[in-house]
Write a sequence for this structure.
């Protein structure tokens, strides 16, 4: 499978619907290889992954499975999916995996293992429920009634966890605090879980309100798939008032220039290395953050007559296409350490770039 990249203008999201759907369907029906990360308390816990996670023991690991289900549900909602050869198969697989029985089992496993997949897998569970609830396809909306128990379990876990967190995790992989909390916050708002919204907003202010002049020159490391600084800015943009953000955001991003390493794609020297291949996703997630933050920065610049901030923002936007390109190719590659997850990140930024 190939992505429609190459020379010329960046392709449209519709160009990727069919290849990404093929990837998602292939992933969520592929049991092995599978990286099982649960804590075994006794020999009774040494069982095939599907025995504990009947819906998400596929697509290499639990969190990737959850967000590949999310991706497939998202793709089904596009115009390009109408009449597609894979449409009925996709709905059939989603219906089988996201049954009420399976979701009760998955939610029970999260409750029994309250730090497992925290907060990255939690965030994707909330996103999965959100996209199903919002779907225009009756079969998918029905599945949203099943996944609600999974989302509500995450909300309960977040409300219990955050008051006991002394400091956020600030690196560029799964346990990053800001990346997960932003997604959970948006889902909690839509679900009217005001207790969770308040808990996340309070923790976000406690963790990040005093931060300024983030070091974007040195933040990037060889296993990152998200930018800690830009994820933090993304989350704060959801929590701060307009007036607060107008002060905080330019100060926090003051060291970010279009030439910063954080806005430069990294060449993956060994695509078979699952950790190094995170760098494909880094370019995609950075591009997505830039696209979300740019309108806010432009509004601040216009309101304050801050020409330098406007120039900074335009320079950041000019880097988006080059950041996206390597990840778009890797999303449908034959190298499974990349293709089991990257298409989700690619789809989100593509959809956003044309939104």
């Amino acid at each position: 499978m190939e992505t429609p990249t190459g020379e010329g203008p960046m392709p449209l999201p519709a160009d990727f619907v069919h290849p990404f759907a093929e990837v998602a369907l292939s992933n969520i029906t592929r049991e092995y290889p599978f990286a099982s990360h649960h804590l075994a308390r006794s020999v009774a816990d040494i069982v095939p992954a599907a025995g504990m996670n009947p819906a998400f023991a596929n697509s290499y690991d639990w969190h990737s499975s959850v967000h590949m289900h999310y991706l497939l549900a998202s793709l089904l909602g596009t115009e390009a999916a109408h009449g597609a050869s894979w449409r009925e198969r996709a709905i059939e697989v989603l219906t089988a995996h996201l049954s009420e029985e399976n979701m009760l089992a998955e939610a029970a496993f999260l409750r029994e293992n309250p730090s497992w997949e925290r907060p990255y897998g939690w965030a994707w569970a909330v996103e999965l429920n959100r996209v199903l609830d919002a779907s225009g396809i009756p079969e998918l909306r029905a599945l949203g009634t099943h996944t609600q128990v999974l989302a509500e379990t995450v909300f309960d876990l977040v409300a219990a966890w955050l008051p006991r967190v002394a400091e956020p995790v600030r690196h560029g992989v799964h346990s990053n605090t800001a990346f997960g909390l932003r997604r959970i916050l948006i889902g909690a708002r839509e679900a009217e879980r005001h207790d969770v919204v308040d808990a996340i907003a309070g923790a976000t202010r406690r963790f990040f309100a005093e931060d300024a002049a983030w070091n974007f020159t040195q933040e990037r490391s060889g296993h990152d798939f998200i930018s800690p600084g830009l994820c933090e800015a993304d989350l704060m943009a959801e929590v701060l008032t307009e007036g607060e953000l107008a002060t905080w955001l330019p100060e926090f991003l003051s060291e970010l220039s279009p030439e910063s390493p954080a806005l430069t794609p990294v060449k993956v020297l060994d695509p078979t290395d699952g950790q190094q291949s995170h760098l494909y996703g880094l370019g995609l997630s950075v591009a997505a953050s830039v696209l979300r933050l740019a309108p806010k920065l432009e509004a601040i610049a216009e309101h304050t007559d801050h020409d330098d901030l406007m120039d900074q923002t335009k320079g950041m936007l000019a880097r988006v296409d080059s950041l996206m390109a390597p990840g778009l190719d890797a999303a449908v590659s034959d190298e499974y350490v990349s293709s089991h997850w990257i298409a989700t990140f690619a789809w989100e930024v593509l959809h956003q770039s044309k939104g």
About this structure: The two ends are 26 Å apart (CA to CA). The chain has a mean pLDDT of 94. The chain has 15 helices and no strands. Residues 278-304 form the longest helix (27 residues).
